[in-house]
Design a protein that fits this description.
With about 200 residues, this protein is of the alpha/beta class. The protein has 2 domains: about 50 residues, RecR Domain 1 (Helicase, Ruva Protein, domain 3, Orthogonal Bundle), CATH 1.10.8; about 120 residues, Dna Topoisomerase Vi A Subunit, Chain: A, domain 2, CATH 3.40.1360.10. The strands form 2 sheets. Strands 4-3-5-6-7 form a 5-stranded mixed beta sheet. α1 crosses α2. The radius of gyration is 20 Å and the shape is elongated.
Length: about 200
């Protein structure tokens, strides 16, 4: 039987996404095997990331400053905004090194069954950015599942009155797939092969 403290640590690891009970227990025992100094560094890193990281006031990406490095970069193409579900998707797209526009992070997608409603998404600031800035194109780069498609179509309707092109990444990413797990070649082809989104 595990001790109370091991059990408590296991429960905390088990709360993380994709961490099952057995993996959580392995992580708890791995912590026990670490030197005290390593555990203290680990704990400090957890606290620091929670205290220092915030959401960029422009795009919603995670940043340690009010405005993230991408939004501050004068070399980026400010006429194009790529809409993604979360910051992990930006990391994946930046790894491909072929998109030079700006981003907008929704922090989720419309999924009422999972408790994610429109009000919880970073949508209003996207509308404001399109209205106030010289934006020519908005690219929907949401994961190709039912909720992602629903969110893309909702945003398309929301932005249709603006004189901009609304496109979405090509279907190189399989239905139900995730941007963060896609290989670089697939991501490049998805952006390059994007097509314009129109209401039926």
């Amino acid at each position: 039987m595990a001790t109370k403290s091991i059990e408590l640590l296991t429960e905390e690891f088990n709360k993380l996404p994709s961490i099952g009970r057995k993996t959580a227990q392995r992580l708890a025992f791995a912590i026990l095997e670490m030197e005290k100094e390593e555990v203290e560094r680990f704990a400090k890193a957890l606290i620091e990331v929670k205290e220092k990281v915030k959401k960029c006031i422009v795009c919603g990406n995670f940043s340690e400053e009010e405005i993230c490095d991408i939004c501050k970069d004068d070399e980026r193409d400010r006429s194009v905004i790529c809409v993604v579900e979360d910051s992990k998707d930006i990391i994946a797209l930046e790894r491909a090194k072929m998109y030079r526009g700006l981003y907008h992070v929704l922090h989720g997608k419309i999924a009422p069954l999972n408790g994610k409603t429109l009000e919880q998404l970073n949508i209003q600031t996207l509308v404001e950015r399109v209205a106030k800035n010289n934006v020519n194109e908005v690219i929907m780069a949401l994961n190709p599942d039912l909720e992602g498609e629903t969110t893309s179509m909702y945003l398309t309707r929301l932005l249709k009155n603006f004189d901009i092109k609304i496109s979405r990444i090509a279907s190189g990413i399989p239905m139900g797939g995730n941007l963060e797990y896609s290989d670089m070649a697939t991501l490049i082809k998805s952006i390059e092969g994007r097509r314009e989104l129109k209401e039926d």
